[in-house]
Amino acid sequence: MPLLNKRTRTAAPGGHGGDPAPYPLSRLRIALTVFFGLDGFLFAGWVVRIPAIKQQTGASASDLGLALLGVSAGAVVTMTLTGRLCRRFGSHPLTVVAAVLMCLSIALPAQTHSALALGLVLLVFGAAYGGINVAMNSAAVDLVAALGRPVMPSFHAAFSLGGMIGAGLGGLVAAGLSPAAHLFALTGIGLLVTAAAGPVLLRHRSPAHPERTAHEAPAAPARLSGRTRRLVAVFGVIALCTAYGEGALADWGALHLEQDLRAHPGLAAAGYSMFALAMTAGRLSGTALLERLGQTRTLVAGGATAAAGMLLGALAPTVWLALLGFAVTGLGLANIFPVAVARAGALAGPGGVAAASTLGYGGMLLGPPAIGFLADWFSLPLALTTVAALAGSAAVIGYAVRRAPVTSPVASPATSAVASPVE
Fold first, then answer.
1. How far, in Å, are 11, 14, 229, 271, 349 from residue 220 at the CA level?
2. What is the pLDDT of residues 177-221, one digit of tens each?
3. 226-412, superfamily in CATH?
4. Architecture of the domain delimited by 22-203
5. What Rg value do the Cα atoms of the chain yield, rounded?
6. Quick one: which H or E segment has residue 252?
7. What is the pTM of this model?
8. Could you read off the pLDDT of 64-80 as tens digits, one per residue?
């Protein structure tokens, strides 16, 4: 199939004759970008209220840790299920449904008064979070294929920007609003945004299946070959390597600056902000980078850059050099996860996105406790060098699979039109 127009494509006729309607890819891209931003905004809004909710529930540190596992458990279970649901019902409706559930469930933690109740409602919130991540990434993979341009990093940039706005807003209102009022306000904002952007997705099915009319049932997914499954797992491991670094820096970066380099608490808190800003900037420029370098060179250069930056951040003798290292790490890691998820989705559709996302999310969960154990056994600076080791591993793995096909032989016609070169 020839590459499709970057702004509109022709949808399949609905069986009533006449000219087919134009397919508004530009509007789909805007709507999906909004959902990525909303996801980051809501999740960050919840995270900044964790200390207040801990106090409200009277949970100890260990009890809170167990309750927070509810988010992880709900997300991991739902990620696998959502891949199957996307194949059956489509990624667009699933994105909207999961967004509504996330908006509603974010208000629940502030209504709890025990660690057990908190853990139970976080299962629901985690399920919605996992669902929307797989559904919107699956929709994005199909849209990237239809556009014929590697724009996947721009969606993840919206997630990062949404997270920064959500965290900043949460910090501003934390002193004046109770957790219940704040999270209820987020529910209202989220539902309004979903009501504005959701109809665009609901009116138009995924561009990956132009040959299917509105009256036809979805075809059964073709069985993937063993090689394709292994490749999807490899790209999931690449996603894990980069998500490990995100989780580790989020939880341990500030402590390293304050404890090991004697930074002022305010300056220490800026460490993760610099990392997040650099990652956002890297993702905003990711499309141009992919078009210029291709996927393999982007993966290898990103992994190598992140490894060098984290070695500097972990082992630097001064705060300012460490901050520079954190920023370089963010730039390096920025586009590895989006590329890995896009490659997995191109190979295996929603199931590939689900598998890669689940492995990547596992890396984000693995990072903080692994760093903690290693810090106890050795030291925190040495423990943080594992972020560099995994980033370097992502570069090596990315180079090793450089000759892997961009799409699976069973991919849909639109998916086979991906125009971003591997090298």
1. 21, 21, 17, 48, 12
2. 899 999 999 999 999 999 999 999 998 877 654 444 444 444 444
3. MFS general substrate transporter like domains (1.20.1250.20)
4. Up-down Bundle (1.20)
5. 21
6. helix 226-255
7. 0.74
8. 777 877 887 888 888 87
